[in-house]
Design a protein that fits this description.
alpha+beta, Jelly Rolls, 7-stranded antiparallel beta sheet, 5-stranded antiparallel beta sheet, 6 helices, DUF1214 domain-containing protein, signal
Length: 448
């Protein structure tokens, strides 16, 4: 069997790539990001300051030992080389959670993202525990006794998926209540208002009832088409008068230490060890509700790890189960994405090309197989996987629920296993695909 292209889909994909390239050249993707706010700048600056003044050596040592144990022996030189980097990002993520942890003075903070240079700041990466390159993750500290109003403004059709999860812990999460994007009431002009307090809705739309356990509102904006979709602009107002001054640096440092101590259990032992490396290599269990992790309760997911030679590939077949959003992201051995702004280390159902039967076939490999649905490992020979299904239908469709299968192959044997009509790409088309990805990501960090 040889590669056979589907001409209609090929032409459509080629036209899309050409259009994107034209937009890039025209400079039409340079509008300021809704994430580039004064409070984001202030929180980034504070997080950098806390990092500079605190080494967290004890917590770093504990995390490195726990991550190594969760991975299991032997640990290759390739995996060992990236462990310190993963710990660096986890430490900064713990600081980021801590600098925006005052519910009496709440702010909107974008975190769990790659490093960036903006506003004259060199912001380190703060990725951890299977960060999804499609996601804009933002946090708002919440006190169960206070009243909050969150205002959002959508541009265009908005993100592919949106969720507002009220959680009891920034590390273990544990959802108290969730406002799903499919239930969010948005006005014709793209605006919406969310209220949060400890009272029932009593007729209020977009209301989230909090409890004494509430600590944080965790907001996810999933972008399917990075060039056409943008995160919602958000602001938060606490309606009650603060009873004390703003918390100081000593409180932030103490919170960061707590976050790191809890990360040892939550991410090293739990996610990396129990959920990921406990599974056989190059396999993925069938998806199950993420509620068992305490994370996004409206999501299904599965976890695995891969080990591939240069001439090997993991063929991944996906049934979306009617999900409005699906993504297959590849992360390093410690669950951190690698250069997601310029490497195709993830593909979602908007970016990928579907098979004739509506399912999706992906090729995960260190080397480019010349297939459109290539999810690269960024040159790594081992790493981790966490496919996700969101916007699931209320009932199982006739084609079945979310499902996934994997097959380890030699790259040379791929043509015998790929479905008919598999979309292929030339080196030039691949370059366009990657340029479009980078241009789409750059919109998130544009400051003018």
């Amino acid at each position: 069997m040889s590669f056979r292209s589907n001409q209609t889909r090929s032409n459509k994909a080629a036209k899309t790539l050409t259009l994107i390239a034209g937009l890039m050249l025209a400079g039409l993707t340079s509008a300021a990001s809704v994430l580039a706010t004064p409070e984001q700048q202030a929180l980034d600056a504070k997080a950098i300051q806390i990092k500079k003044n605190n080494l967290f050596l004890l917590q770093r040592g504990q995390l490195a030992a726990a991550y190594s144990a969760a991975h299991g022996a032997p640990i290759s030189s390739e995996a060992s080389a990236s462990l310190n980097h993963a710990i660096d990002e986890l430490v900064f993520s713990a600081i980021q959670k801590a600098v925006n942890n005052d519910p009496l003075y709440p702010k909107i903070y974008w975190l769990n993202a790659p490093p960036r240079d903006w506003f004259g700041l060199k912001v380190p990466g703060g990725r951890y525990s299977f960060d999804n390159p499609d996601n804009i993750y933002r946090t708002i500290p919440i006190n169960g006794d206070s009243r909050y109003v969150i205002r959002g403004q959508r541009r265009g059709a908005g993100p592919t998926d949106v969720t507002f999860s009220l959680i009891s812990n920034p590390n273990y999460q544990q959802s108290i209540a969730v406002l799903d994007g499919q239930d969010l009431v948005v006005a014709a002009d793209g605006s919406y208002t969310i209220t949060i307090d400890n009272q029932p809705a009593n007729g209020r739309v977009n209301h989230i009832q909090s409890t004494a356990d509430a600590r944080q509102l965790f907001v996810r904006n999933n972008l399917g088409d990075w060039t056409a979709e943008a995160a919602d602009a958000l602001s938060v107002t606490r309606l009650d008068t603060p009873s004390r001054p703003v918390r100081g640096d000593a409180d932030i440092v103490a919170d960061a230490r707590t976050n790191l101590n809890e990360s040892t259990v939550a991410y090293a032992i739990g996610t990396l060890g129990v959920k990921t490396y406990a599974n056989p290599v190059n396999t993925l269990p069938q998806p199950s509700s993420s509620a068992t992790l305490g994370t996004l309760v409206t999501q299904a997911s599965t976890f695995g790890h891969f080990r591939l030679a240069d001439d090997e590939a993991l063929l991944v077949k996906v049934n979306t189960g009617g999900a409005g959003y699906f993504v297959l992201p590849v992360t390093d051995p410690w669950t951190v994405s690698v250069d997601p702004d310029r490497r195709q280390v993830s593909l979602n159902n908007v970016q990928a090309v579907a098979d004739a039967d509506g399912s999706y076939t992906f090729v995960v490999s260190p080397r480019d197989p010349g297939v459109f649905n290539w999810v690269e490992t960024a040159g790594l020979h081992e790493g981790t996987l966490m496919p996700r299904w969101q916007k699931l239908p209320a009932s199982t469709p006739a084609t079945g629920g979310p499902a996934i299968s994997t097959k380890l192959l030699k790259l040379a044997d791929l043509p015998y296993y790929l479905p008919a009509g598999t979309r292929t790409v030339t080196p030039a088309e691949r370059q366009q695909q990657l340029q479009a990805r980078t241009a789409g990501y750059d919109q998130r960090v544009a400051t003018d």
